[in-house]
What we know:
It is a single chain. This protein is an alpha+beta fold. 17% of the residues lie in helices and 37% in strands. It folds into 4 domains: 29-91, CATH 2.40.50.140; 107-188, CATH 2.40.50.140; 200-270, CATH 2.40.50.140; 280-353, CATH 2.40.50.140. The chain has 6 helices and 21 strands. A 5-stranded mixed beta barrel has the order 1-2-3-5-4. It has a 5-stranded mixed barrel with strand order 12-13-14-16-15. Strands 17-18-19-21-20 form a 5-stranded mixed β-barrel. It starts with 8 loop residues before the first helix and ends with a strand.
Amino acid sequence: xxxxxxxxxxxxxxxQDESAKQITAGDIITxxxxxxxxxxxxxxxxxxxxxxxxxxxxxxxxxxxxxxEVTASVVDSELDSGYSxxxxxxxxxxxxxxxxxxxxxxxxxxxxxPYDANRGGLLVEYEGVRGFLPVSQLxxxxxPRVGSSDKDEILQRLNALVGQVLKVRxxxxxxxxxxxxxxxxxxxxxxxxxxxxxxxxxxxxxxxxTGVVDFGVFVNVDGIEGLVHISEISWERVNNPxxxxxxxxxxxxxxxxxxxxxxxLSMKQLQEDPWxxxxxxxxxxxxxxxxxxxxxxxxxxxxxxxxVEALVHISELxxxxxxxxxxxxxxxxxxxxxxxxVDKENRKISLGLAKKK
Length: 357
């Protein structure tokens, strides 16, 4: 049996030199927790002495206990007390940046939990590195679709996401600039592509209303954002979309077009068009009564029934092109008219002023 060669004096000295190697600022070292006090944590560094973690990091180290092995960054190799000044937070952050680089390179989906919010987005910490999840990078489910002027509601919606676990991808990172940007949209885009492929124009879908704005209604359809334009909410004239739907409500809608990353939807096309039946009541040459709903430079719009609106063109008012419709009509007044033309194909009815009896 072969015997191990005896250790020479040079070997012993080399071992001793290695264990007693002088540490310098910036080194990453490993040690064992000696004690935890209210204002400090002491770390046994073996032959390299004792490390001191100051008060400002005690909260960060609260989960530690005596005997735990920790990794720390050397801030100052020799304080007046003889201890080395250490930072557990910086070491964790250094490791965190290394992890960030790996996840960015692999495009891996990770889970984060926002700890705060502002009007621009969510504040996130990942592996000790603080980053940001902009509003523009939120999924359709979480995007705060509110009026552009209602900043308080935007912040309220974002605050509701604080503490929730979100799946994201790292969109951009710059260690020197201390910049780390996350994206929830990127994390779900692969699944969205599959869902988009399964949809076609004409399909009926269900979704949850995520926002009601002046020009329409935003809907989350299984993670895909859809928009019901104000003109597609109802067959009747819609002045305020919030009179028809509320945030959180589940609605059915018909897909009328598929854009790059959004569905255009229609609620009214799932209902029978009342115009088709009501228009049968009106024929050219008959007298009708209606309510003036809009006055424009080219004439006035008149509501003849719940679903049928007609136009009195300026040319029917007499006096040539100089006549002012606002001097002829009063908004919301009831007035007698005569039907001049019914164009069913283009959904238009032309009216003239009824002759005075």
